[in-house]
Amino acid sequence: MTSTGFDYRAGVLHAEEVPLPTIASAVGTPTYVYCANTIRHRFHQLDQAFHGVPHHIHFAVKANSNLSILSLLRSLGAGVDIVSGGELYRALAAGFHGRDVVFSGVGKTVHEIAQALNAGVQLINIESEAELVTVNAVAERLGVIAPIAIRVNPEVTVDTPHAYIKTGEKGQKFGIPRDDVSRLVACLPDLPNVQLRGLGMHLGSQIGNADPLRDALPRLLSALEQARAAGQPIAFLDVGGGLSVPYEAHETEADIDDYARIVRAAALDTGLTLLLEPGRFLVAEAGVLLTEVLYRKHAAGKDFVVTDAGMNDLIRPALYQAYHAIDPVVITDGAVVADIVGPICESGDFFAKDRAVPDVQAGALLAVRTAGAYGFSMASNYNSRARPAEVLVDGEQFAVVGVRESQEDLVRLERAPLHWRTA
């Protein structure tokens, strides 16, 4: 297994060259810690797999939208895949240009579509006929031609760890059913302010083998043939993301070579520029959630390890029943079977259930692994808790890239006294 950047040295867990206790002492806990070199390695690994094929990697911003992470990926040559106007704002703030942006999502507002067109995005992914009509109307009002792609739902069976991360099966809200693509293409001559520039798909997340891709690609290529036969100037073939990363010890990394072998062949046959949209693959293993043990508790025959991080900081275990490895920052003798829980007033506030863990005591530090994707980006202020800090490590140096919220931040946008208005 490839190193994630987090390794023990003399019994102490380090992020690259920096001991995690040093970060905890300087910044406090809970804190997300990211390794820059792991992100670089993952990007280059994927980029090299498609050497010789015209391609562009668009990072899925929803996985981790921190400006410094985005800037790092921009410096490597990445573009971005966004799903909201807010993510577009972040991308532009991180130095990306409109031409670096693919805009996905089933519910784009008129304001977001205008924002995207004014920024000159590379593609707007169309996910319904109604959206197609709306994009044309907004583009007409702005006096521009909207570059669009049709997101095809190939309707293939996808084996993922949780139903919520499947997006390419029949009955999902995402994309255009493959049998409806030709009908949308037939509408295009009546919509003069859109131009079809690409076709794409996204099967879901945590796809562990290439079998769904083998099933889906012919369906995407069939839709491409229909669009080309209708005279559409297709330039891009977008195969989405979804490459899996291991969360548990028995899981293996995505087989990039097998994935690339299948996709390369299809892309070369079409002669189009290939678009890839990885998110989790680039950043998940590059991050941990650093948390301190507050208390040990024994109740009703169970042991509990209570931490200062909660489900508001990392909701994946509660939302997806996701497994995250949890390691002591300083190696500790002994073990105990315990629930690792947070301070939130919810029974769903846990990171592990009945887990064999080191016999850590109050004051010890724990690292919740594989937390660089869908960790901070899904964090909330539930229970009026401030969101954690974020730190980026690069070799021997580290920097705070996300300041811990204060309690004043919790009410900063609220108003008292009220300024009443009348109808």
TrEMBL record:
GO terms assigned for molecular function: diaminopimelate decarboxylase activity; pyridoxal phosphate binding
Keywords: Amino-acid biosynthesis, Decarboxylase, Lyase, Lysine biosynthesis, Pyridoxal phosphate
Residue sites binding substrate per the record: 280, 316, 320, 346, 374
PTM annotation (N6-(pyridoxal phosphate)lysine): residues: 62
Enzyme class: lyase
UniProt-annotated catalytic positions: 345 (proton donor)
Keyword Lyase: yes
Pfam families, sorted: Orn_Arg_deC_N
Binding locations of pyridoxal 5'-phosphate: 242, 277-280, 374
Keyword Lyase: yes
Pathway: Amino-acid biosynthesis; L-lysine biosynthesis via DAP pathway; L-lysine from DL-2,6-diaminopimelate: step 1/1
E.C. designation(s): 4.1.1.20
Entry superkingdom: Bacteria
GO biological process annotation, one example: lysine biosynthetic process via diaminopimelate
Catalytic reaction equation(s): meso-2,6-diaminopimelate + H(+) = L-lysine + CO2
Cofactor: pyridoxal 5'-phosphate
Residue ranges annotated for the Orn/DAP/Arg decarboxylase 2 N-terminal domain, each copy included: 38-284
NCBIfam families attached to this UniProt entry: lysA
Functional description taken from the UniProt entry: Specifically catalyzes the decarboxylation of meso-diaminopimelate (meso-DAP) to L-lysine.
Family: Belongs to the Orn/Lys/Arg decarboxylase class-II family. LysA subfamily.
Classification via PANTHER family: DIAMINOPIMELATE DECARBOXYLASE, GROUP IV DECARBOXYLASE
Subunit structure and binding partners: Homodimer.
Protein name: Diaminopimelate decarboxylase
Organism: Gemmatimonas phototrophica
Name of the coding gene: lysA
